[in-house]
Write a structure and sequence with these properties.
The chain is mostly beta strands. It is built from no helices and eleven strands. The strands form two sheets. Strands 2, 4, 5, 6, 9, 10 and 11 form a seven-stranded mixed sheet that branches. It has a four-stranded antiparallel sheet with strand order 1-3-8-7, with no helix packed on it.
């Protein structure tokens, strides 16, 4: 089992920045891919960015150039640096490990 705990969400004005963190615990040695997903009201959950254990990353087209996923294996933590935030980035952001494991989510609200 893997437990994930997100932090760093909040309210920010358009154009601002936030950094989300996700700390993993439990059977961390089984973790290969970690990712961030988001779900806006009335919309399906979507992949924002993912990173493998060796650092290969993938970012959704909607966030390329603005968001950056990174990983600190020594701290068992994955980060999502979000810059130039837009109101359409407002959503609950969820951390994911190996597709199977989910955090509870952290709310990001971007005001216009």
């Amino acid at each position: 089992q893997v437990q994930l705990e997100e932090s760093g969400g909040g309210l920010v004005q358009a154009g601002g920045s936030l950094r989300l963190s996700c700390a993993a615990s439990g059977n961390i040695f089984s973790i290969n891919v970690m990712g961030w997903y988001r779900q806006a009201p009335g919309k399906q959950r979507e992949l924002v960015a993912a990173i493998t254990s060796v650092g290969t990353t993938n970012h959704a087209d909607s966030v390329k150039g603005r968001f950056t996923i990174s990983r600190d294996n020594a701290k068992n933590t994955v980060y999502l640096q979000m810059n130039s935030l837009k109101p359409e980035d407002t959503a609950v952001y969820y951390c994911n490990a190996n597709i199977d494991y989910w955090g509870k989510g952290t709310l990001v609200t971007v005001s216009s």
